[in-house]
Amino acid sequence: MGTLAAVVGIFAGLLLAAPAAHATTAPPAASESPAAVTETGESESPGGSVTDGAEFQNRISGVLRNAGSPVSGVTIKASANGYEAQTQTAENGSWSIGVPEQGAYEVELDESTLPEGLGLADGQENPRTVTFAGTSNITTLFLLGEGIVLQGDSFGTKLVERAVAGLSFGLLLALSAVGLSLIFGTTGLTNFAHGEMVTFGAVLAFAFSAAGLPLWLALILAVAGGAGLGYVQDAGLWKPLRMRGTGLVPMMIVSIGLALALRYTILFFFGGATQQLPDSQSPMLELGPVSISRNNLVSLCVSLAVILVVAALLLRTRIGKATRAVADNPPLAAASGIDVDRVIRIVWMAGGALAALGGILWAYYRPGVSFNMGQQILLLIFASVTLGGLGTVFGALIGSIIVGLFVEISTLWLEADLKYVGALLIMILVLLVRPQGILGRRERIG
């Protein structure tokens, strides 16, 4: 109990300090660039004559290029419900405008500020309406007459881009899904608090970075904090319940209560606003015909590397073999001399660390850190685990990739708000054909 109280105290202190520390740091990277400086060099309140909205977290941004070269000094305006803001494109062509709340905004490029002889490409809507959809950042691109070629013109290019985005999202999901699958495989517990473990990692990363720590150290400490949360959960809650012989259904209900308690504890200390991790705004990279943001590319590489390491540990190390033995038959593993409680404790710590890392990458993918971000992704994590086969780590990986690909590729035909519904639908259809999942084993129940 002393350990639990200490961890809770440290966590509460970090969360109390984080918003204040964040408020005193420099604005996001997008607003540090010349794109955030108006003609008057000032950023006034919404009631003033000119503002770039640098004080707001919700942002509309983009990049202006001509024949691959950035176009600077062009004025972009945004307005809605009496609020008006404007900015100028920076030396690298980027621009960003902050807005007080999410909703629909009219964005206009002032064509009189374009270089002589340069105009918008045919068919470009100006002004145009942009609408926030579940994220604190939205991007819109104005294409110039000799500028960026709209890659959406080619269905094949769009398909490749969506497939790459789907692979990145699927591997991000796999980090959390593998942790959940390991916990289910060794304990049989369906942990509904896993989403809050995802949130915990992102919130800790924000808290440590807002406290002034270098980003690399903040991320490492956040992942370690996720492992610590897994340790505290098992030592303070799940092991005592197992020792008392509590059934899996009551434990599942306890996990729902734990999820609510963690979620609203984070809300109390962290607040309901969406905050940004450092370097959340990243440039787009051109890899042949594919455009991908630097953050998404880093997320893809990190996720893949971590999953390969986890797979190697499970297949090649003694603790990995012991984990698979406990997942297969706990009584037989105990009779063989394996310390089942120690294996379960390690699994909880590994699951917490993977969930925390998944939360950090999810914050960069959205982007943004919010108190309910884990809840938003929890159903997709469950879909991945169920689709691949409950309790199978490699099944969770395959299920996550399928869900990620389907979510992103489906946007070619579905509205963006419906893409998660499609992922859950494909899970239902697969389970109707193969109830045990792709790599799961048939079991007789009853």
From TrEMBL:
Topology within the bilayer: Multi-pass membrane protein
Signal peptide as annotated in the record: 1-23
Keyword Membrane: yes
Keyword Zinc-finger belongs to the record: no
Stretches for region Disordered: 26-54
Highest taxon in the source lineage: Bacteria
Composition bias type Low complexity, residue spans: 26-40
Subcellular location: Cell membrane
Protein family per UniProt: Belongs to the binding-protein-dependent transport system permease family. LivHM subfamily.
Descriptive protein name: Branched-chain amino acid ABC transporter permease
Source organism per UniProt: Arthrobacter gallicola
